[in-house]
Amino acid sequence: MKAKTVLWLWLVLFSSAAWSLDASLSQYKLGSGDVIKVTVFGQPDLSLTTKLPNHGVINYPFLGDLSVIGLTGAELEAKLYAGLKGDYLIEPSVSVTVIDYRPFFIDGEVKRPGGYPYQPGLSVDKAAALAGGYTERASKTKIFIRRENESGQQEQLSARSTDVVLPGDIVTVQQSFF
């Protein structure tokens, strides 16, 4: 009976962690440097792949300049659907996919600080591994992540080595005193 309880708790915790990662990426807001693919089923002239520029505006056929920075993929799909429906298409089937996420950055007590391509499922430990690993003086308890919040403001969060890193995050590993 005890083994079943442990297994059940493990499954609940694992599925919660996987769900929270999926939830954070489903609410992912597009930003400068992301590469997106817009597909309109049956309309190759309306499909495109583009890297989002710093100013956050893309030029889309028939609709002109669209501001996309800060939108989720679902919000951009809805915006394109509303713009294309009626005047151009009867019932457009629009899909927006992030092909390449903007990079994350890691600095402080890692061997090769810098920017690295984001990979879904990235934790602080995995980010440090991409940066050559922690230095001998790295603190595993003084790790901070600077991340843009819902209102577009940068905030600094205290992090653990197992916490999730998102595209555009800046991870700082402080020096240990002992």
Automatic annotation (TrEMBL):
Residues 1-20 form the signal peptide. InterPro entries: Poly_export (IPR049712), Poly_export_N (IPR003715), Soluble_ligand-bd (IPR019554). GO terms for molecular function: polysaccharide transmembrane transporter activity. Pfam families: Poly_export, SLBB. Residues 25-98 form the Polysaccharide export protein N-terminal domain. Keywords: Signal. Residues 104-152 form the Soluble ligand binding domain. This is Polysaccharide export outer membrane protein. It comes from Paraglaciecola polaris LMG 21857.
